[in-house]
Design brief:
It is a single chain. The longest helix has 21 residues, at about 85-105. By secondary structure, the protein is an alpha/beta fold. Helices cover about 35% and strands about 20% of the residues. It has twelve helices and twelve strands. Strands 4, 5, 6, 7, 8, 9, 10, 11 and 12 form a nine-stranded mixed sheet that branches. Strands 1-2-3 form a three-stranded antiparallel sheet.
C-alpha cells in the first residue's frame, strides 16, 4: 500500500476549529486523522505544516511502515523541537495510517493495539472555562443530569472550583484543571482548601511545572499533568516524580498512536495512572477511545462540551452521557460523512 495523497482538511463548526487529514493509498484505501487545533490561529499553521513539510516524508512510501515513518519524521524535524506544532501535525497522518492499517487487515485499531479490554468507557463531562460561579454551577447541573460518571472544570480561582465541587456529589469523581494558572507557593498557602475538594486529580496546577520534579506528594491532592508532552521520553522524566499521580498522554500532542501507545505502556509500568487527554471530536477522539480501551486500568473519556454540528459520526462523540461505546469496525471504526466535511470546510465558508 503506497501512500499517494495527504490532504489536510480545515473545518469551522461554530466556534470550534478542527484540522483533519485524509490519507489515500494508490490502492484506494483512505484513512482519516486529526491534530489538536480548537483555536482559529492554529488552523493555518497546522494545515501548512501537514501539506508543505510533513507530507513529503510520507508520499510514495509504504503505509505498512507507519511506525518507521513516524520515527523518520520525528528525526527529520527534531531541530524544530520534540513537541509542539510539528509533532501535533504529525499525529494527523499517523492516526490516518493506523486507520488504513485496520481497514486493510479487517481489524479495529484497538485490535491492532493489542486488543480491547472493555467494550465501553465511562464519560467525564469536560466543561469550558466560565470564570463565574453561577455559570459553572448551572452547566455542571446540566452535565450531571445526563448521567455522566465524572466531571471536570477548567477554572483557576479556588472559590469558583469550590462552588463547582459543592455542585458535584462526593460520589462523582471530580477533576480541576487550572491550566498552570497558580504558583506552588499559592497552592501551598491554601493546601487545606485544595485537599478538602477531594479531587480525582488536580490537573496542571501551577507554573513552572518543573517544580513537580523535586517536590514530594501533596497529601490528599493527587496531581495530574503531561497533556502537552511530545514524547514518551519526556513523559518518563515526570513519571519518576513522587508528586505526580496521573499522567495524561495526548494522542495528538504525542504525534499519533505510534507514540501514544508507548507512552501509556510506560506510564503503567511506572506505577502511575494513565489518563489519556481527550479534547477531540473527530478521528483523534476515535483513536483515543481505542487507546483507552486497551489500557490496563479503566479510565474516562473526557468529552468536551457538546454543540450543534460537533458529532461528526452520529455516535455521540462528543456527548455527555454515562458511557460511550468503543468502535469495533475495521480501522478507527467510522469515517466522517463527506457531506459533513463539505458543509463545514473552512475554505468554502
Amino acid at each position: 500500500m503506497i501512500i499517494d495523497r495527504i490532504e489536510p482538511i480545515a473545518l469551522r463548526i461554530g466556534t470550534l476549529s478542527l484540522v483533519l487529514c485524509r490519507v489515500t493509498t494508490r490502492s484506494g484505501l483512505i484513512g482519516y486523522g486529526e491534530c489538536l487545533c480548537n483555536r482559529p490561529p492554529m488552523q493555518q499553521a497546522l494545515v501548512a505544516t501537514i501539506r508543505d513539510a510533513i507530507a513529503s516524508v510520507y508520499i510514495g512510501q509504504s503505509a505498512e511502515e507507519k511506525e518507521a515513518l513516524n520515527l523518520t519524521a520525528r528525526r527529520r524535524f527534531a531541530s524544530f523541537g520534540r513537541a509542539g506544532t510539528v509533532t501535533n501535525a504529525l499525529a494527523a497522518i499517523d492516526i490516518a495510517l493506523w486507520d488504513i492499517a485496520g481497514k486493510a487487515a479487517g481489524k479495529s485499531v484497538s485490535a491492532l493495539l493489542g486488543g480491547a479490554k472493555r467494550a465501553r468507557l465511562p464519560v467525564m463531562a469536560s466543561l469550558d472555562k466560565y470564570d463565574d460561579k453561577a455559570k459553572v454551577r448551572a452547566r455542571l447541573e446540566q452535565a450531571l443530569a445526563t448521567g455522566v460518571k465524572a466531571a471536570k472544570v477548567h477554572e483557576a480561582p479556588l472559590d469558583v472550583i469550590e462552588e463547582a465541587r459543592r455542585t458535584v456529589p462526593k460520589t462523582i469523581p471530580f477533576v480541576a484543571d487550572s491550566n498552570n494558572a497558580h504558583t506552588l507557593a499559592a497552592i501551598r498557602k491554601d493546601e487545606a482548601r485544595w485537599r478538602a475538594l477531594d479531587l480525582l486529580f488536580f490537573e496542571d496546577p501551577f507554573w513552572p511545572p518543573e517544580e513537580l520534579l523535586t517536590m514530594g506528594k501533596m497529601a490528599g491532592v493527587p496531581i495530574g499533568m503531561g497533556a502537552d508532552f511530545g514524547s514518551t521520553e519526556q513523559m518518563a522524566v515526570y513519571a519518576k516524580a513522587a508528586s505526580i499521580a496521573v499522567l495524561q498522554p495526548d494522542v495528538c500532542m504525542l504525534g499519533g498512536l505510534t507514540e501514544a501507545r508507548k507512552a501509556v505502556a510506560m506510564v503503567e509500568a511506572a506505577g502511575k495512572t494513565a489518563a489519556p487527554h481527550t479534547p477531540f471530536v473527530g478521528p483523534a477522539a476515535l483513536a483515543s477511545l481505542h487507546l483507552l480501551a486497551t489500557a490496563e486500568k479503566e479510565n474516562y473519556f473526557a468529552a468536551i462540551e457538546p454543540g450543534e454540528g460537533r458529532d461528526l459520526y452520529g455516535i455521540g462523540v462528543p456527548k455527555w452521557q454515562p458511557t460511550v461505546d468503543v468502535p469495533t469496525s475495521p480501522g478507527l471504526g467510522f469515517d466522517p460523512d463527506p457531506d459533513f466535511l463539505r458543509r463545514y470546510d473552512y475554505a468554502k465558508q
